[in-house]
Hints:
The chain has helices spanning 19-31, 67-85, 104-107, 122-127, 131-140, 153-158, 195-198, 200-206, 225-231, 233-238, 249-257, 273-280, 294-298, 310-321, 324-338, 343-365, and strands at residues 2-6, 36-43, 50-52, 55-61, 91-95, 112-114, 147-150, 166-167, 187-190, 216-219, 241-245, 261-264, 285-288, 302-305. By secondary structure, the chain is α/β, with parallel strands linked by helices. An eight-stranded mixed β-sheet has the order 3-4-2-1-5-6-7-8. A six-stranded parallel β-sheet has the order 11-10-9-12-13-14, sandwiched between helices.
Amino acid sequence: MKILHLIYDHINNPWVGGGGAVRAYEIYKRLAHRHTITVxxxxxxxxxxxxxxxxxxxxxxxxxxxxxxxxxxxxxxAALFIKKHWHTYDIIIEDFxxxxxxxxxxxxxxxxxxxxxxxxxxxxxxYYLIGLIFMFLEMIxxxxxxxxxxxxxxxKKSFLLKxxxxxxxxxxxxxxxxxxxxxxxxxxxLGRLHINQKGLDVLRESLxxxxxDYNIFIAGGGKDSAKAQxxxxxxxxxxKVKMVGLVAxxxxxxxxxxxxxxxxxxxYEGQPLVLLEAAACAKPVIVSDxxxxxxxxxxxxxxxxxxxxxxxxxxxxxxxxxNEGLRKEMGKKAREYAKDxxxxxxxxxxxxxxxxxxxxxxxxxx
Length: 366
């Protein structure tokens, strides 16, 4: 197959660099030896087109250091790219984001839509009246696509999908299952540094209520990196919090496998990769009680706190710190749960879905 995927984000994008970009890269690098794949991404400062075998990345937009301008120019140029080249691809997939839709369905009625998280009214809190546009797009955009992919059952409900979408979750590198889990005596936040979405302000406030000794590592990058540094400055100075920065590869694995547990106080999510990676490393998690993260609790490797409630988060942190035996038991359940979500399995599932679509299109054209 010749596959075209449109997603603003890229794993090296300094403004975003989120799970959607990782998902696309991990799946497609596994499929590139059997298919020819082109990924259209948004341009950021220093970004250039490149290829890894049959997997090619084309960056569209502006190289200026302006996130808003980059997303707007990306959407315009990506739409023009589809108009010009859509007929040269067997399958087109569009990663939906209300900030930069590319309207692939106009040029290819069989385009596939990848949905992640739904933010709803949060758009109004973030962007005021302009947020109404984003809310409207979230409500209607998927109606123009025959084939849709979601990452979890919750998104089927949140987007009010009438037709049955393909549920293809995120994954992790299988090697994490072979790592020896150690307890290095620190709590870990690992993820994008987006203060409001990820609830970093709630984590910061919770520190006011934790009694006893503790250490927290905050790992990740993003547009709120400088704000996060200021937010936690008092605790950084006291040595309670360490800002680790962006981590990848072996360093990321070591930080994961050596933590006591993970904290993810998000206000809204899709399906965060870090929870699956933590589970693979046999680590328990503390999560906010939003529906998107409920599966960690149901699977027995997570405990939840009331979203936005810093005092409740502090109590849950104290509870897990004081119960080493429980952490180990939760860790065993975590690793057992994770076994079905390796990127190899997810890539095979994703490929099977696309091939069914292509087969259906081929029959229609006969």
